[in-house]
Amino acid sequence: MSAPLLAVDAPSMLFRAFYALPDSIKAPSGEPVNALLGAANLILQEVERRQPRAVVLCFGPDAATYRVELYDGYHAERPEMPDGLVGQFADAEAFFGAFGWTIAAHDALEADDVLGTLARLEAEAGGEALLLTGDRDMFQCAGERVAVLYVSTGKKGAEEITPAERDELLRNAIATDEANPRSRRYAVRRSSAGLEVYDAKCHGDYEGEPEFHAHPAGYVPASVLRALRDSGVLTLPEYKKLVRQFGQ
User: Fold this and answer.
1) Is the pTM above the cut of 0.70?
2) Are residues 22 and 98 located together in one domain of the fold?
3) CA-CA distance, 188 to 18, in Å (whole number)?
4) Contact between residue 93 and residue 36 where contact means Cβ atoms under 8 Å apart
5) Are the C-beta atoms of 163 and 139 separated by less than 8 Å?
6) What φ, ψ does residue 21 adopt, rounded to 5°?
7) Range of the domain at 225
């Protein structure tokens, strides 16, 4: 059996490493290199552990063109990239390329779009893919031929997400991504009080765990309810109940 393909969510790894390591780690020029060093260490750890046949670093814009077209407020409130990280992002492709790793960058698609595409193509070809990321949205890719290696805040190394854990996540209503809180507006929670839909507002930054504030939604667009239904977050009876509840 051929060794797996390791696809890396490069922006996610760089951001996590930037906040995990002190900016006192500098190049001879005096520029910080903490994000590059930390990301490289994370990747090398998985290379040693998993022995992939190839490593692909995925890059893309902060906001994919098609996502902005669908929702013009997408990522509108996301803070600017820290000054100490700008130069490291600019150097990232050359730096990671020096390891002999492949760079897959797209002008209009985000890194996770590229990651998901590689996973699908690899699985369709009969191979296996490993997705190294800090983005919970990628849990949906976990399957028989695709393993999601999740890097969470405050933990060393990556945790492999199984299909069962993916299904539990979807069923229990994580419609928001805690590592990228501004990418979703609505969340579903199940409790003793029953099924509740929240308008999720997150105020925080990329350092550490975000502060999550959820307020009951007074109105949820029909398109959001359909998306929650189609993704498996809502069952069909739950979907119909909420359609009636919100008068749609």
Assistant:
1) no
2) yes
3) 31
4) no
5) no
6) -115, 150
7) 173-245
